[in-house]
Amino acid sequence: MEDMKKVILDYVIEEYLEDEDEEDIDENTPLISGGIVDSFSMVSLKRFLEKKYSIQIPDADATPQAFDTVNNIVELVKRFQEK
Amino acid sequence: MAYSNKVREVFQQELKDLRDAGLFKEERYIHAPQGAEIGVEFPAGSSVNKVINMCANNYLGLSSDPEVVQAAKEGLNSRGYGMSSVRFICGTQDLHRQLENKLTEFLGTEDTLLFPSCMDANAGVFEAIFNEQDVLIADRLVHASIVDGMRLCKAQQDTYKHSNMEHLEQKLQDHQDKRYRLIITDGVFSMDGDMAKLDKIVELAEKYDSMVFVDDSHATGFIGKTGRGIHEHCGVMGKIDIITTTLGKALGGASGGCVSGRTELVEMCRQKARPYLFSNAVAPVIISGVLKVLEMVSASTERRDKLEQNTIYWRKGLTEAGFDLKEGESPIVPVMLYNAKLSQDMARDLYSEGIYAIGFFFPVVPKGQARIRTQLSAAHEKHHLDKALDAFIKVGKKYNILGKGKKEIIEMYGM
Fold first, then answer.
1. What's phi and psi for B41, nearest 5 deg?
2. Burial B177-204 (b: 16+ CB within 10 A, else e)
3. How many residue pairs from chains A and B have C-beta atoms closer than 8 A?
4. Using the beta-carbon criterion (under 8 Å), do B368 and A38 form an inter-chain contact?
5. Are the beta carbons of B95 and B79 closer than 8 angstroms?
6. Active site includes B249?
7. Active-site residue among B63, B163, B190, B288?
8. Does B161 contact chain A (CB < 8 Å)?
9. B243 pairs with which residues across the strands?
10. CATH number of B66-299
């Protein structure tokens, strides 16, 4: 697995899953639409990405769709890294 | 025309989608004052059904209390019906200030400001005090009105796993570079009925130089030995910087809310909070009712003691019958069912048995966490609870969920 995917996936597991959660998540698991991350707690993930990858994600781009899977998030980060 | 037939059809389809998904909410018409037993018309047009109410925030049973009603009537006579003004223009009576002072005394704070509702208090308080140099760190299960209020504020936001003190500590460490930190929690969480670990939160706040905010709407009047709230229960009275609470639950159940806390923070709300500045003053009739409620609950703990006993009895009964309950001590007792349709079907069957309780499902609670949330009242007598228990057991047997846990219920009914 690419390093960025692993880093983001590890963060999501650490930040959002409880110890007793049984589900395994991967880069395709729906995070927002699957109810693992809600729009309220998504702010922590946005802040992590901005700090980790030295980017600014405008609120208009920080949509539930853009954050719904680790794959989507990697695409979003790469888009803003190129700017 | 902006609202054409085409536009109308779009919204009709959206509403139909809600019905088809089993997520459409219907009002029931109550033909009685609020109380332990009420007459309900449901569906609309049907005859009125006498039922035991297991889902009101009428924790102390004061919503229709004769003394409270009498005090409200006297308020109408002496101070009129409405103020027709926002507070700062000509909407503040002596009664408003009297109630604010009484709430300050009751909650053990420095000052209090009334709002039209606690929803309004939560909408206005953060924006009035904090800015982009600050951070608001909230428990992930705080009430929707707090989420909305945080979004209106320019301060940065962060969240911590529900009631997880290690995660909160990590967040406080992460945000030491901010001007002010504010930890935000409910006192009693409205959907799960569990209580905030406020003593631990205050410890962390002191360690990491943070202020503390609590919405104590499901605690004021009955949590703690003398009903002051979660801060009394956790032994941290005087250490909470901002408390918001409602007058629309245990404290009479009419309407109104407040911000209570440090003198300067309350004054900032009086000067800048938009719901305070731009909304009509709380009506004198409500002020008079709440003043009587505070007098009654300050004079005696009889009602909150009875509520506590009712809660113990109810939890014991449901647990022994084999229902899956969220653990806790508060009079909010969720019966976990996980499947949305199951919660609605059981609520419907309970209604047929003369018990009024509602199924809660997404988006009110997370997906796969549907429940029937029961709430106790000091107005409940033992015979009410026994009848309700019998009905729950009968319906629980029908759906074969007694003695079953989460995994087994989900296997039978899905999520």
1. -100, 105
2. ebebbbbbbbbbbbbbbbbbbbeebbeb
3. 22
4. no
5. yes
6. yes
7. B190
8. yes
9. B214, B260
10. 3.40.640.10
Nearest Cα residue in chain B from A41: B159
Residues B340-386: tens digit of each pLDDT: 889 999 999 999 999 999 999 888 888 789 999 999 999 999 999 99
A-chain residue closest to B149, CA distance: A40
Bridge partners of B215?
B186, B244
**Tell me: the pLDDT tens digits for B246-294?**
999 999 999 999 999 999 999 999 999 999 999 999 999 999 999 999 9
Cβ A35–B367 below 8 Å, yes or no? yes
Å between B239 CA and nearest CA of chain A: 27
Chain B residues whose CB is inside 8 A of the A16 CB are 161
Q: Which of B102, B143, B178, B218 is catalytic?
A: B218
Q: What is the spatial distance between Cα B62 and Cα B76, in angstroms, rounded to a whole number?
A: 18
B366 touches A: beta carbon within 8 Å: yes
Both tokens of B223, joined, read 């949590």
Per-residue confidence (pLDDT) for residue A1, from 0 to 100: 47
Q: DSSP secondary-structure letter at B285?
A: H
Please check the confidence at residue B129 and state whether its pLDDT lies above 90. Answer: yes
- The residue annotated as part of the active site, out of B249, B292, B306, B326, is B249
Q: Rounded CA gap, A51 and B27, in Å?
A: 47
Chain A closest CA to B141's CA: distance in Å? 10
pLDDT in tens, B68-109: 999 999 999 999 999 999 999 999 999 999 999 999 999 999
Q: List chain B domain ranges.
A: 39-55+312-335+350-359+380-393, 66-299
User: Which of B158, B161, B366 lies at the smallest CB-CB distance from A43?
Assistant: B158
- Domains belonging to chain A, first-starting first, are 3-14+27-81 (1.10.1200.10)
Query: Closest to A44 (Cβ–Cβ): which among B159, B362, B366?
Result: B159
d(CA B364, CA B37): 26
pLDDT of residue B23: 76
From CA B118, how far away is CA B83, in angstroms rounded?
A: 19
Token code pair at residue B281: 């003053």
The pLDDT, as a whole number, for residue A22 is 62
Contacts of B157 in chain A (CB under 8 A): 43
Query: Could B159 and A41 be called an inter-chain contact, meaning their C-beta atoms sit closer than 8 Å?
Result: yes
Interface predicted TM-score of the whole assembly (ipTM), two decimals: 0.88
Look at residue B25 in the predicted model and tell me its pLDDT.
83
Distances (CA, A) of B374 to A14, B85, B217, B269, B337: 33, 38, 17, 35, 13
Which residue reads 């103020």 in tokens? B83
